[in-house]
Amino acid sequence: MPDHDGAAPAAELLPFIDLDRGRAAFSSRPRPLEPLDDVAGLLAGAAEVDLTPPPGLPKAGYSSNANTGTGFRTRLRARVLHLRSGTSSLAIVQCDLLGGSSVVQHLVARAVEGTTDVPLAGLMIGATHTHAGPGQFLGTNFYNRFASNRSGFDPAWTAFLVERIAGAVESAVATRRPARMAVGSTEVWGLTRNRSMRPYVNNDDVEDKRTEPQRKFVSINPELHLVRVDTDAPDGGHTPLAAMVVFSVHGTGISVHAPDYNADLWAYLVGELGHRVERATGTRPVVGAIEGTHADVAPALRPGAAGHVEAQRVGRAIGAEAAELHDRLEAELSSDVELASGLREIDLGGDRTIAGVTLPRRPAVGAALVAGAHENYTPVLHRLPPFAAGHPKRRLTRGPQGAKWVIGSRFLQPIVLPLRDFPRVLPVQALRLGDVLLVGMPFEVTTESGRRMARAVTEATGAGSGIGKVVVSSVANEYSGYVATAEEYDLQFYEGGHTLYGPRTQAFLAAHAATLAGDVLKEGTVSDCLPERTWDLRVHRYLPRPGSPAVERRVLAQPTFTDPTRDQDGSWRFEWADVAPGDLHWHEPMARVEQSDGGDVWQDAVHQGRRVDDQGWSLGVTHLGGDDRGHRYEVRWHDPAFRAGRRHRFVLLANAGRPELRSAPFD
Q1: Is the pLDDT of residue 9 over 70?
Q2: 174, 182, 74: which is closest to 128 by C-alpha?
Q3: Which residues does residue 130 pair with via DSSP β-bridges, in sequence order?
Q4: How many beta carbons lie within 10 A of that of residue 616, not counting itself?
Q5: How confident is the model at residue 247 (pLDDT cuts 50, 70, 90)?
Q6: Rounded to 5 degrees, what angle do the CA atoms 139, 287, 465 make?
Q7: Is the per-residue pLDDT at 1 higher than 60?
Q8: How far out from the chain centre does Cα 560 lie?
């Protein structure tokens, strides 16, 4: 791929695949920092785009236990919050994906460099860490291979992500206007739990060493942080523009067996927050979320009830807490907001030492990783030492990987997993949002690791820095595994086995975060990135290609009802025939429901104050299979409304040139 002087847009990623070698080798040179004009007050813009792909992509998060996506239950989206003040320009992207990606971050920065003033250092690709979104867009062969149920980097899917996200950044910048902002925090209890209690209580900082069941509900990071941004109105008032949540909980409320794409409990969290704000103010803001320090925190589900019913219960309850905080922050809104940003790319092929802490030259996969995490164990293996959680090495632990059982031994693992396939460049980011410093890490950070990182940053910045709170966000700008504290690591549960660079990883990252934070507060914008980022990724295309034979779009059956179960709500189901998945636009609206109280007068159906369409959590669309003669699909209306005498019907919207289609009425 051309370097910065001949930059290629995202769509030109595809021609740089070596089909003979099955690889995508390309590079990017960050644009040199250019001074920006000093802007008085605060300007802000926001945008939202749909990232939902067609069926056929592997899902990331559950590794080989995952499924290939068959459709969507709740949509995957990217929300952009853009802020401009002083000489700083930021864009925080909140994606319903497993994590950020260095490829996406760099290519988006290049795509918008001619149309926006957002530098690479001010562009953050954050994520909700749903385990039901596609993978195959990450910057390392290791996680493109092992995070999903199938292997390979998909350049077509990645180009789609870059194009959609870059467009949203450009839209947010183009529509920015005078604004006010407030950042606040609240505590949320009873909806999350610590899934790895023995390692947590092994930390020196934890005084209460009990591991009784009730402890798991308090051994968490309960803080929910919310950024509220309103735009100034002509009458002197203000209107909600955007809200961003940072909260610590795994996106694992939905069962590993679910085949659909979905944003997990985060869909319900942001949906509830947006709905409540709209009900209170008359305006629905762009609402998104990113992870906090969640690595050992799971949703508090009822035993055996993983699914959308539980994900909705937990997500909406968290969203309700966020809405109350959003309301309280109105009194704190201010246009006097100081912004700053910094991005440091740590090249582990070079200097692996900071503040006396040295990481091993080579990462290693631990046996405990293969056994899986607490709520999604790998069958059989999770019971067998050394894979079973809590079976560390007892001897020969003085090496750089300490108590970790290295799969295949430290001699054989490098043969199967070459060093170049692992994360070797670690992006650490710091964004100043008024008196809050948001620290982005490419790892899943445990509760105690996050506290120690925040404490290190606080101590380094000092009392006179103007920073009142440090918030650590996981899986930002890349996915690089886990970070457990040294004490957690020593017990070799899943979190320790997945800490690739050994027991000193947390101390190493805390030192880098503290150094970067200090530089950002002094300099305003810091871009300490590699002169050139290069990727050499094994390729496999999963994104379906268009071009299937044209077929008639037709109804296949009368809508039918499916009764609810303990973990699945009831639903009306409608089936139709259509072209292949690659010939439909899944990121555009596909279906809604109409209602009639008599005669031929039909209107959009509304249930519990929400339109019944595929933009919320009411409707899901699934591909059932097919061939050249046509493909079968179904749309389901989950948890439907009932009212005597009222009829309903499904409407398949015009999509990719396909005509609108209606089902027979049902009631």
Answers
A1: no
A2: 74
A3: 251
A4: 17
A5: very high
A6: 75
A7: no
A8: 35
271 is written with which tokens?
């949906």
The residue assigned the tokens 């055996």 is 304
Q: Is the peptide bond before 234 cis (omega within 30 degrees of 0)?
A: no
Q: Which amino acid is at 63?
A: S
Q: What is the mean pLDDT of residues 7-33?
A: 73
Task: State the Cα angle at 154 between 420 and 111, rounded to 5°.
Answer: 90
SS3 content of the chain, % helix, strand, coil (to 5): 25, 30, 45
User: Collapsing DSSP states into helix, strand and coil, what is residue 42?
Assistant: strand
Strand partners, 632: 577, 625
Structure tokens at 51: 């990232």
Question: Which residues neighbour 644 within 8 Å (Cβ) at sequence distance 6 or greater?
Answer: none
Cβ atoms 295, 484 nearer than 8 A: yes
Kind of pairing between the strands at 353-354 and 357-358? antiparallel
Residue 7 in this model has a pLDDT that exceeds 50: no
pLDDT tens figures, 183-207: 999 999 999 999 999 999 999 999 8
Which residue blocks in 152-305 are alpha helix, DSSP H? 155-174, 197-201, 265-281
d(CA 473, CA 248) in angstroms, rounded, equals 9
Instruction: Give pLDDT, residue 12.
Output: 61
Give the whole-angstrom CA distance, residue 633 versus residue 637: 14
- CB atoms under 10 Å from CB of 237, counted, come to 8
Mean pLDDT on 68-84: 98
375 three-class SS: helix
Question: Which residues, listed in sequence order, are joined to residue 77 by a DSSP beta bridge?
Answer: 50
Q: Which amino acid is at 599?
A: G
| pLDDT tens digits for range 127-169 | 999 999 999 999 999 999 999 999 999 999 999 999 999 999 9
- How many residues are there in the chain? 667
Q: Do 33 and 70 form a contact (C-beta atoms < 8 A)?
A: no
- CATH architecture, domain defined by 554-662: Sandwich (2.60)
pLDDT at 565: 81
pLDDT recorded at residue 11: 55
Task: Decide: helix, strand or coil at residue 225.
Answer: strand
- The CA distance from 215 to 300, in Å, is 13
Residues paired with residue 187 on neighbouring β-strands, in sequence order: 223
d(CA 180, CA 238): 8
Q: Give the three-class secondary structure for 267.
A: helix
Indicate the pairing of strand 17-18 with strand 123-127: unpaired
The answer on pLDDT for 621 being more than 70 is yes
Complete DSSP assignment for 93-152:
EEESSSS--HHHHHHHHHHHTTT----GGGEEEEE--BTTEE---SS-HHHHHHSBSS--
φ and ψ at residue 515, rounded to 5 degrees: -65, -45
Instruction: Locate CATH 2.60.40 in the chain.
Output: 554-662
- pLDDT given for residue 379 in this prediction: 79
Mean confidence (pLDDT) of the chain? 94
Residue 530 to residue 322: CA distance in whole angstroms: 38
Phi then psi dihedrals of residue 242, to 5 deg: -155, 155
The C-alpha atoms of residue 366 and residue 549 are separated, in whole angstroms, by 48
Does pLDDT of 35 surpass 80? yes
Mean pLDDT over residues 429-445, rounded?
98
